[in-house]
Amino acid sequence: MSVAQFDTLVEIFEHAIKTHASRQLFGTKRDGAWTWLSYAEFGKQVDGMRGGLAGLGIGKGDAVAIIANNRVEWAVAAYGTYGLGGTFVPMYEAQQVKEWEFILSDCDAKLLVVSTKAILEKALPLLDKLPKLEGIVCIEPLASGVASSNSRVHAYDALVATKPAPLVKVDKTDVAGLIYTSGTTGNPKGVILTHHNLASNVSAIHAIFPMSTEDRSLSFLPWAHSFGQTLELHGLFSMGASVAICEGVDKILDNLLEVQPTLLFSVPRIFNRLYAAVQKQLASKPAPIQSLVAAALVAATKKRVGKPVGFLEGAALTLANKLVFSKVRARFGGRLRYAFSGGAAISKEVAEFIDGIGVTVFEGYGLTETSPIATANYPNNQKLGSVGKAIPHVRIWIDTAATDGRADSALKEGEIVIYGPNVMRGYHNRAEENAAVFTSDGGFRSGDMGYVDGEGYLVITGRIKELYKLENGKYVAPAPLEEQFKLCPFIANLMVYGDNKPHNVALIVAAEVPLKEWAAANALSGKSVDELVKEPAVRELYKKQLDHYGEAFKGFESIKDFALITTDFTTDNGMLTPKMSLKRRAVIEAYGDLLASLYKA
Which of 244, 265, 286 lies at the terminal end of a domain, its last residue? Predict the structure, then answer.
């Protein structure tokens, strides 16, 4: 296994192009077929982009922003910028224009790259509103004459075709990028990440994860977010592996079958969907098959933790693997070895299931501010239910004083503080917030609560700012409860609520398709989802689901009442951030009266 050590992303680029020139790098699907770009071909495009950007006046320290989903051109623009010593600033297509404007202004972007002509139209007025923004590059081919009619609009293809510019000498302390955290309140914050911040994380991947040139992933996590960018883009690029770019979230299963990845980088909700789909199928199987699967999963868990597996247990695992598990793995393309989960805590139940069917799950933890990996499970150091051990050169300290009596003292629970080369330089233009998140000796206060167990594994127990106190004085961390409830196929989304109240209640978004299927089998067919949520039988269904999925919760954490709604939380209605985190304040503002009504006896 490679143990390469990198100081900059430019080093990674030079190493990857030289070492893996003939290998496949990026796969894209066009006209029904997958085509692959080699490392050498990618290198030529980056060289041309570097020349094109230099011709537009981009130099060391200049910010180049992009509004695009994952695509080859995203990576070309990024590495073209790094090679000139510039700062790359990614944004999401799904963000509102006002958010683009804020970010472009905050980072003093000199150039903006956009994916489509539709986004170009939205962004054009920003050229006049932002004096430091000198031009826009459009990836999608422009109509004849469009670029020439506006000297500040440039065609991507023309830039890539430019004569290469030499690589600039980049120091490891130079800023590689600003990643703006979407935040659940207020304007996003620009996280300043140096070349060494990101490169140190890539080096750690080489040290602990079993990846090679033969590996392939299906990329659907946005590279605008640190998890997808560091692990999948920079990490796999440095390994000589290949990356197929997913057509869209709705095409994940189809694309998995087509490209047959060996690695999968995902957030829990994708694993949750697969788990729910498989559980639904299993529920329709004969009782002996269900019993076989249950016995096999128990045997798989024993095997994973090193406990002896009896003859009958081993036989059950072998038979279940042949009849059931191999078919589930086939839905991933049949070659998947490892699944990497991050971005939020994965349910232990789901992780054990994925692991049990023969796909090893490695869950990690980190934040944009830590580039992002701080801890991870990895081969021979894996404990499901934890987020692993500190990665090489990173140290975790638990500040038990920071939680002000809200933590479990028996577990030595407290705020997670992170030290290491992966810790950001700071927030851009946010002196007060920098003072609040850094300790006097350079540690980063994560805002997350957790503890380190006796074997050195970190366990996350909640987000400090989301903790609230019930009237009885008990503290509740809502996010872990919500993730568990979202395993229920009838729940599309939900928010747990109870701040300064006698008990918890929940606002539940009904999952339309499963609910209608249930209704058809229970003499309620033909009704709309809006009608169904008012039916007493449907409320009883949801009550039973809450009791079932919440059976492991502490008594004070249980849900005493709930309201059913049919409008999901989305980025469009302002209730989710671009990385799909719940904006609790926005939900409470929109549904405050409904939540209050649940406490009226």
Answer: 265
Helix H or strand E encompassing 110: strand 109-114
Residue positions counted in the chain: 601
Whether residues 503 and 562 share a domain: the answer is yes
Taking alpha carbons only, the member of 208, 454, 461, 531 closest to residue 340 is 208
φ/ψ region of 322 (left if φ > 0, alpha if ψ in -120 to 50, else beta) reads alpha
The residue range of the domain holding 481 is: 467-597
Q: Are residues 383 and 272 in the same domain?
A: yes
Q: What is the dihedral of CA 388, 394, 395, 400, to 10 degrees?
A: -70
**For 401-439, what is each residue's pLDDT tens digit?**
988 767 677 778 999 999 999 999 999 999 999 999 999
Give the bridge partners for 311, in sequence order.
Answer: none
The verdict on 431 and 507 lying in the same domain is no
Q: Which of 248, 265, 282 is the last residue of a domain?
A: 265
Let me know whether 427 and 575 are in one domain.
no
Q: Are residues 455 and 322 in the same domain?
A: yes
Summarize pLDDT for 156-188 with one digit per residue, the tens.
999 999 999 999 999 999 999 999 987 655 789
Question: Which strands form 389-390's sheet, in the order they lie side by side?
Answer: 33-38, 24-30, 242-245, 216-219, 263-266, 338-341, 360-366, 373-376, 389-390
CA 464 – CA 441 distance, rounded (Å): 22
Is-contact 261 217, C-beta < 8 A?
yes
If asked whether residues 505 and 565 sit together in one domain, one would say: yes
Query: How far apart (Å, rounded) are the C-alpha atoms in residues 582 and 344?
Result: 12
Taken in order 416, 419, 424, 427, the sign of the CA dihedral is positive
User: Is residue 495 in some structural domain?
Assistant: yes
Total domains in the fold of the chain? 3
Residue 451 and residue 309 share a domain: yes
Q: Which residues of 551-568 are buried (b: 16+ CB within 10 A; e: fewer)?
A: eebeeebebebbbbbbee
**SS3 for 89?**
strand
Q: Is the pLDDT of residue 578 over 80?
A: no
CATH code for the domain in which residue 259 is found: 3.40.50.12780
Answer yes or no: is 58 within a domain. yes
Return the H-helix or E-strand segment holding 106: helix 97-106
What is the C-alpha to C-alpha distance for residues 73 and 50, in angstroms, rounded to an integer?
Answer: 13
Give the phi and the psi of residue 505 in degrees, each rounded to 5. -130, 175
200 within a domain of the structure (yes/no): yes
> Tokens 């127990």 — which residue?
461
- CA–CA distance, 321 with 412 (Å, rounded to integer): 40
pLDDT for res 601: 61
User: How far, in Å, CA of 354 to CA of 362, rounded?
Assistant: 11
Q: What is the DSSP track for 241-261?
A: -EEEE-S-GGGHHHHHHHH--
Give a yes or no: residue 1 inside a domain. no
CA angle centred on 532, ends 280 and 277, rounded to 5°: 15
Task: Give the Cα separation of 232 and 107 in Å (integer).
Answer: 25
Evaluate whether 370 touches 347 at the Cβ level (below 8 Å).
no
